[in-house]
Every structure is written in structure tokens, then in C-alpha cells.
């Protein structure tokens, strides 16, 4: 019998002034934010689910409902039996600068209790590239990369069987990113992950929950690349059906304005794709994480905007081409 990590029951959630979202099956809301909640927010134990979509689509709202930091207006969210959740948001994680590295991981003890058994704190820290001499250093003496690795070490030392991670790759150097990927790949529990890092999603998740616009969400098997491939195939199928339907009825000529719009869309899409590629390359640079947080957040926001604009313009292009016959 498959046991679910989270169960929901007709949840409604107000997302803004005058906006109500339906977060469950059956029911009604002014604007539906999440569809088929019982289906896509009922991960089984051991699942690795990635949430993707433009900013404002509701990714963080979903995490907040799971964690209990957000309360629904009606209905309820219930965690499965014996579910223990550990949450990681690097921007909010705080380390005590006066504690040593070892004290941060295992206060007052020499052993760390892990799902696979007990491990000496020195041995555990070595898994995160801390040599024994560094274990007694104060947190205030650590470099930025070392602090990131210490945050990861503390995360995986928590007694949890569900990890909820919100943009965990922000500010990570290459070493820390590789450590996080390896640790998540070896993790035996359930993972719920929000990230704009497509390569990271491909390497970690087994299914992708994507915001599709108009309040619609859909789950795809595989990582981000698998989602893009399946989404492209669906678009091609829809486009073919639209073309057939247009040919079967009387054709409607495009207006002058629509004709000019159709001519300009390929260049606009090409420019957005070029910007998207350049931004992805920038965010993949080793020194990128050293920039101020406001720059990182602005880049992430722009990445989400580009993704939404591309989807909008591709759909508009398909619609105009279908209308033109």
C-alpha cells in the first residue's frame, strides 16, 4: 500500500485582494490557483518532486501550506503518519557565530544520529569537506563557502524523512552545489524542491510539477528537461489539432495589426531565448554567488519573467498562425 506524505481536503486560499484560489478537488473560487490538489500534492514516500513556474505562480504558497506556516482559509492539510519535515531556505538560515563547527552540528555530543546509524561528528563533517582541525573553529571564522557547507551539514543531520527546499542553490559555490546534489541523490526520504536551476532539477527530481498558466498545474514524469520535452510535444499536438480545425471551417483573414504582430513574434521570441541563454550562463559562473542578494533575486525574477513571456508569445504565435491558415 502506497503511503502519502501529505493529504489535503478541499483547501481554499486567498492569494490577494479579491482573489480566492481553490487548493483541492470540488469547490469553487473566483480564481483557481491549483487544480487537482489531491493528485499532485500527495507525494508518496521516497518521491522527489520539483516545483517550477514563474514568480507568483504559488510555489512558495504550496510549501507554506505543507510546513504549516500558512493557514488555508478553509479545509486542511494533514501530514502522513510519522512524517518529519526539515525545511531549508538558505536566505533565512542563521548560524550562531560564537559556536564551533562541531557544536553547530552536534551540540554537547560527539555523535550524530543519522537515518543510517550513528556517526562521529568528525567523520560526518569530513563528508562536507571539513578537516578535523576545522571542526573546532568558530563559525565567525568560516569563509562564505564553508558556511554554506555547514548549513548543508546541519540540514542533513536533522531527524527528518521529508526535505522541503526553497531555492537551495542560491549562493552555493561549485563544491557546495556538488555536495548538495550528491547528498540529495543519496537521500532515502521524500524531497519537495523549488528551484530555477534547471540542471540541478534534472539531477535530483523524478517528477516535475509545473505551473501552466491560468491557475493550472500539471505533473510531468522526470526532471526539467523531460518536462520541456513533454510540454513541447503537447504544444505540437495542440497546434496540429488547431490547424485542422481552422482548415475545416471558413478561413478568417488576419487584420493588418495581427499580420504585423505575426511577423514580429519570431524575432521577439528569438531575443527572449537569447536573453534566457545569456542569463543562464551568467548564473552558472563560479563567482556568480558572490554578488549581492538583491542582484541574485533580480536575476531569478527576470528568469521567471522570461519563462512566462516565452510561453505567452509562443501561444500567441500558434494562435495567429492557426487563424491565418
How would you characterize this protein structure?
The chain is α/β, with parallel strands linked by helices. It has three domains: 159 residues, Rossmann fold (3-Layer(aba) Sandwich); 64 residues, no CATH class; 75 residues, Helix Hairpins (Orthogonal Bundle), CATH 1.10.287.380. It has a six-stranded mixed sheet, sandwiched between helices. Strand 10 and strand 11 form a beta hairpin. It is elongated. The chain starts with 5 loop residues before the first strand and ends with a helix. The relative contact order is 0.12.
Question: How is the topology of this model organized?
Answer:
Layout: E1 6-16, E2 19-23, H1 37-40, E3 48-52, H2 59-67, E4 74-79, E5 85-88, H3 101-105, E6 111-114, E7 117-120, H4 121-126, H5 144-156, E8 162-166, H6 174-186, E9 190-194, H7 198-204, E10 207-211, E11 217-221, H8 224-248, H9 256-283, H10 293-324
Helix pairs in contact: 5-6, 8-10, 9-10
Describe the oligomeric state of these chains in a short phrase.
single chain
Structural class: alpha/beta
First and last CA, distance: 51 Å
The CATH superfamily of the largest domain is P-loop containing nucleotide triphosphate hydrolases
CATH architecture of the largest domain: 3-Layer(aba) Sandwich
> What's the Cα radius of gyration?
23 Å
Q: What proportion of the residues is helical, as a percent range?
A: 40-55%
Properties at a glance:
single chain; 325 residues; alpha/beta; Rossmann fold; Helix Hairpins; 3 domains; six-stranded mixed sheet; three-stranded antiparallel sheet; 10 helices; 11 strands; elongated
Amino acid at each position: 500500500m502506497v503511503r502519502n506524505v501529505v493529504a489535503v481536503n478541499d483547501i481554499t486560499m486567498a492569494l490577494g485582494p479579491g482573489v480566492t484560489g481553490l487548493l483541492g478537488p470540488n469547490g469553487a473560487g473566483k480564481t483557481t490557483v491549483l487544480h487537482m490538489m489531491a493528485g499532485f500534492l500527495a507525494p508518496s514516500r521516497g518521491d522527489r518532486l520539483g516545483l517550477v513556474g514563474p514568480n507568483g505562480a504559488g510555489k512558495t504558497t504550496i510549501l507554506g501550506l505543507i510546513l504549516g506556516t500558512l493557514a488555508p482559509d478553509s479545509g486542511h492539510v494533514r501530514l502522513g503518519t510519522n512524517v518529519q519535515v526539515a525545511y531549508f531556505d538558505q536566505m533565512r538560515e542563521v548560524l550562531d557565530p560564537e559556536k564551533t563547527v562541531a557544536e553547530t552540528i552536534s551540540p554537547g555530543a560527539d555523535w550524530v544520529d543519522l537515518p543510517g546509524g550513528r556517526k562521529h561528528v568528525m567523520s560526518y563533517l569530513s563528508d562536507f569537506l571539513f578537516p578535523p582541525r576545522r571542526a573546532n573553529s568558530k563559525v565567525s571564522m568560516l569563509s562564505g563557502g564553508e558556511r554554506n557547507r555547514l548549513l548543508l551539514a546541519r540540514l542533513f543531520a536533522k531527524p527528518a524523512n521529508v526535505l522541503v527546499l526553497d531555492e537551495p542553490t542560491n549562493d552555493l559555490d561549485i563544491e557546495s552545489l556538488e555536495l548538495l546534489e550528491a547528498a540529495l541523490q543519496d537521500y532515502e526520504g521524500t524531497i519537495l524542491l523549488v528551484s530555477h536551476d534547471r540542471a540541478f532539477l534534472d539531477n535530483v527530481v523524478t517528477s516535475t510539477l509545473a505551473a501552466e498558466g491560468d491557475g493550472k498545474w500539471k505533473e510531468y514524469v522526470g526532471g526539467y528537461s523531460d518536462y520541456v520535452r513533454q510540454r513541447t510535444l503537447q504544444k505540437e499536438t495542440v497546434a496540429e489539432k488547431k490547424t485542422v480545425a481552422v482548415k475545416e471551417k471558413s478561413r478568417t483573414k488576419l487584420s493588418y495589426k495581427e499580420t504585423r504582430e505575426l511577423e514580429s513574434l519570431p524575432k521577439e521570441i528569438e531575443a527572449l531565448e537569447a536573453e534566457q541563454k545569456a542569463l543562464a550562463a551568467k548564473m552558472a559562473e563560479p563567482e556568480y554567488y558572490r554578488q549581492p542578494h538583491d542582484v541574485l533575486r533580480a536575476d531569478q525574477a527576470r528568469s521567471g519573467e522570461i519563462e512566462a513571456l516565452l510561453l505567452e508569445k509562443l501561444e500567441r504565435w500558434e494562435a495567429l498562425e492557426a487563424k491565418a491558415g
